[in-house]
Amino acid sequence: MSIQFKTIRELREMLDEKAISSEELTNETHKLAEDLKYLNCFVTMNKDASIEKSKLIDQADNNKSVLSGIPLAQKDLFCTEGLRTTCSSKILSNFIPPYTATAVLKLESAGSITIGKTNMDEFAMGSSNETSYFGNVHNPWKKGYVPGGSSGGSAAAVAAGIVPAATGTDTGGSIRQPAAHCGITGIKPTYGRVSRWGMIAFASSLDQAGPLARSAEDCAILLNEMSGYDSKDTTSLDIESTDLLHTINQPIKGLKIGIVKEFSLGDLDSEVQNRFEDSKKLYETLGAEFVEISLPNISASVPTYYSIAPAECSSNLSRFDGVRFGYRADNTGDLNDLYIKSRSEGFGDEVKRRILIGTYALSAGYYDAYYKKAQQVRRLIKNDFELAFETIDLIMTPTSPGTAFAFGSKGAQNPIELYLEDLFTISSNLAGLPAISIPHGKVNSMPAGLQLIGNFLREDQILNAAHIFQQNSAFHFDKPSMEEF
Amino acid sequence: MDQETVRTICYLARLQIDEDKAQKIESDLETIIEMIGGLQAFDTENIQPLYSPLEKTAFMHEDIENSDNQKEKFLQNAAASNEDYFLVPRVVE
Amino acid sequence: MAWETVIGIETHVQLSTKTKLFSRASTEFGKSPNTNVNLIDCGLPGVLPSVNKEAFYKAIRFGLAVGAKINQTSIFDRKNYFYADLPKGYQITQMDLPIVLGGTIDIETDKGIKTINITRAHLEEDAGKSIHDQFDGYSAIDLNRAGTPLLEIVSEPEISNAKEAVAYMKAMHQLVTYLDVSDGNMSQGSLRCDANVSVRKEGDPELGTRTEIKNINSFRFVEKAINFEVKRQIKQLENGETVTQETRLYDSVKDETRPMRSKEFANDYRYFPEPDLLPVVISDKEMQDIKDSFPELAKEKEKRFAKDFGLSEYDAQILASSKIMADFFERSAKETKNYALLANWLIGEISAFLNKDAIEINQSKLTPSNLAMLINRIDDQTISGKIGKSIFEEMYESGSSPDKIIESQGLEQISDDGAIEAIISTIIQDNPSQVEAYLGGKEKLFGFFVGQVMKITEGKANPQSVNTILKEKLK
């Protein structure tokens, strides 16, 4: 029985009815991953340990929780004890962490099986998964096209039906945008909802972990497990956890959805606009009301993000110095030479670019004009959202101004081209708000995503709105033909 | 961005740019810096910087020992180490 | 040409918390390398810091003791630079909003009490240790110390000479030990002194270029290093040269300062607020709790010792000047009533021995009980004061108790009048010419007879009894 493209619910049913054992499911998943290895979704497979665990799960008699025996892929940004963790970088190509990230630990404790570590943009810096040391990931919908980034491997693994769900991380759109480009669902929770312990840091005040899956419901299942206060991450929120599935079916009549005036959707590709209008109409038939809102400072999002994220990352990546772990260059002279050679040989170009920008933005004489200024504008953006949310429940945008593109066709000449891919997603990272992307049709035969941004801690609301949309449409059932692979 | 600034930033970040890539990276940096310079157009007088999206204060822990030391594993991960120390090329003070 | 010296001191105080500032690894000194290192202290990818509240409480106690302003809301910043013993490539410190602002410390100078103003004090994490000369061609990194809480205390540049600098460091030492904020041990590195030294012509309002001297690890070296540096700078300026602003190391073997190589390139630390740590807010209740549990400081202890133990002001002051000595005294005083004698021994004989070995009393083999026992045995005349001294030496060497030593060496004082009388009779019989000379007026010969008694009794005869009986018999 084919397991490809199955959802968590479907696999749960198969396991509970003993149509397939956990061990068989795990083996089948590995076989699928092997068959589809051209996609290049995975950096490291966890074959032996995953099969061992599946055997134990089969042997256990107790009531199986919803994730018990479900195969998941983990983005290679999460530390996994004993299993290589690379961030798709040469500088960590041999790093075996001595501990596991909390978010992954929680999913594993809930019974899920880690199949392998997925490919990504190096250190999560990118929007196309073209900066990986281990090579590009293919979009399962079209060979030679990007899956989006930075969680490209996770998105492709889910879109290709290898695993029902995967973890990703989102600093400027890195869960939502690849989910959109690959025709699946992905959610970035409220900042602080999921512990960052063990999540290799890119930009500390922007990073969040979240799930990618075939539906909003499956995302809710994963997010339920991943969320929660962790004393090891003092930026995680100490609040009561709610069951996101509990309210997911609520009717959305009367839901107020804001359309951001300043996003000038009228300037976008006409097909993108059409998809957006179609979705708007669907929501209206489901009882939602649309309101035009203003986020006056929203045009500052991209420059704000590209001041703050590189600054924080330039500091976070200083620990990669060749001394205690990671790549150390050969034939180095003194200590400084060791640093310079190891880091220069170990990091890719995009990472270097961002470290240099960040170093510049923090340096004496420039700090006030760039870093501090950006953090001030950040507050303006957050305030705009707070004001807007007084009159609406959520905000709707296209996830991305475009769809997946051919390898090398964007950003080679001008890096800003790729940065603008994040236009609609970035602001929710700056303000710490939750946001979800769901598939809502095709643009020029490639998947397009619809984004819903919620108020602080209102994952329940955006999951509910997304789920109701999916109950009344079939876009999330679309599957790539995979013939080329 | 003048050469001196680029050199300084590269040194602070302990990065060396290959000769053949230097031109492109420098022009990329200039482009990006110009883009983020656009922030100057926004009025931020009397606005407090927002360093974290959370309006929360730190949780502090008790002064009680809880070791998660794994000396061997830590040292094993290093490119150069012996059974007790991480090793680097000798530093002269 | 008259020159004026301007000195500002940065003191790094290692706080005596059980665990580190941002992790729960132990801070215990002297452990095997890289064992007091948690994931966080190793700076591994994905780790995050968490704040140790005790470190804040100790910092606040210091702030209150020096009359400073406490910033109940303070933040942490990152100081970015590369060095082998700095695992994350940045140090978490406090830049813009430190926990303590202002305050004063009084020092004793030969011109009286001088008040030195404190600019600020902040919390930061310590770096690891590099060992440069143990492995051929390599420097070895031990991260045990990485992450230990430090309180960096910055003084205003109001110290005028090396002696004042020493007085300042001594006052700092007394304060932090009394407050139970640190064990203040300079040689072990829990109290560190960086001196910023500059000179200018007397009367010149402008400050001269200053150099920073690091690696001074004893009070004695504070004085020597500063004196050397002042001389060096004056010489340079008198030769028409300029003083270079730089960081210099003090070499105690050569008694000189020299430029520090790793600080050659001016560093831009790119401070920015630590995004992994939210602002720390100390509640009013926590502030009150800290005030309520304030330990007794030196001056109070001095007064209490004089009052409760009937000690002279002088003795009380000396004992109270060191918390370790004061604590020892108090514990010993629980087991003996002769406080004056106890104080005497501590201030005199015992201090001499400790100074010779350059250790604190709690690092010696002496125990408060044993010392009390010694005092009691002298007090109750089991032994003479003189024998007491040799017993003490044995106690100091071996850690043995006085009673054991007295027993094993048979040192009990002979107080039996009968026995003494018998011995004296023998001596009188054996030394007729001396007896005659004494009775003839040579009073100094009394000492001879006493000496003879002591010789025969190996010093154990009770001196008072000897005197009394001898006087009787030599009539």
Describe the secondary-structure layout.
The complex is a heterotrimer of chains A (485), B (93) and C (475).
Chain A lengths: L7 H9 L5 H14 L6 E4 L1 H13 L11 E5 L26 H8 L3 E6 L33 H8 L5 E6 L5 H6 L3 E4 L19 E6 L2 H11 L29 E5 L9 H16 L3 E5 L7 H16 L18 H12 L2 H14 L5 H21 L5 E5 L16 H5 L6 H6 L3 E9 L2 E9 L4 H13 L14
Parallel strand pairs in A: 2-3, 2-4, 7-8, 7-9
Antiparallel strand pairs in A: 1-3, 4-6, 5-6, 5-10, 9-11, 10-11
Helix pairs in contact in A: 2-3, 7-15, 9-11, 9-12
Chain B lengths: L2 H10 L6 H19 L22 E2 L9 H6 L9 E4 L4
Chain C lengths: L2 E12 L36 E2 H13 L3 E2 L2 E2 L2 E4 L9 E4 L6 E2 L2 E6 L2 E14 L3 E7 L2 E5 L6 E7 L6 H17 L12 E11 L9 E6 L2 H20 L8 E5 L4 E4 L12 E2 L6 E2 L2 H9 L5 H12 L3 H9 L1 H10 L6 H19 L10 H12 L5 H14 L3 H8 L7 H14 L1 H8 L6 H11 L6 H11 L2
Parallel strand pairs in C: 14-15
Antiparallel strand pairs in C: 1-12, 1-13, 3-7, 4-18, 5-6, 5-17, 7-9, 8-9, 9-12, 10-11, 13-14, 15-16
Q: Can you describe what's shown?
A:
The complex is a heterotrimer of chains A (485), B (93) and C (475). With 485 residues, chain A is an alpha/beta fold. Chain A has a domain at 8-249 and 434-477: Amidase signature (AS) domain (Amidase signature (AS) enzymes, Alpha-Beta Complex). In chain A, 35% of the residues lie in helices and 13% in strands. Chain A has an eleven-stranded mixed sheet with strand order 1-3-2-4-6-5-10-11-9-7-8, with helices on both faces. In chain A, helix 2 packs antiparallel against helix 3 (47-59). By secondary structure, chain B is mainly α. Chain B has a domain at 1-40. In chain B, 38% of the residues lie in helices and 6% in strands. Chain C is an alpha+beta fold and 475 residues long. Chain C folds into three domains: 3-286, no CATH class; 298-409, no CATH class; 417-473, Arc Repressor Mutant, subunit A (Orthogonal Bundle). Helix content of chain C is 39%, strand content 20%. Chain C has 15 helices and 18 strands. In chain C, the strands form four sheets. In chain C, strands 1, 3, 7, 8, 9, 12, 13, 14, 15 and 16 form a ten-stranded mixed sheet that branches. Chain C has a three-stranded antiparallel sheet with strand order 6-5-17, with no helix packed on it. The mean pLDDT of chain C is 92. Chains in contact: A-B, A-C, B-C. At the A-B interface, helix 9, helix 10, helix 11, helix 12 and helix 13 of A face helix 1, helix 2 and strand 2 of B. Strand 2 (86-89) of chain B pairs antiparallel with strand 11 (138-142) of chain C, so a sheet runs across the interface.
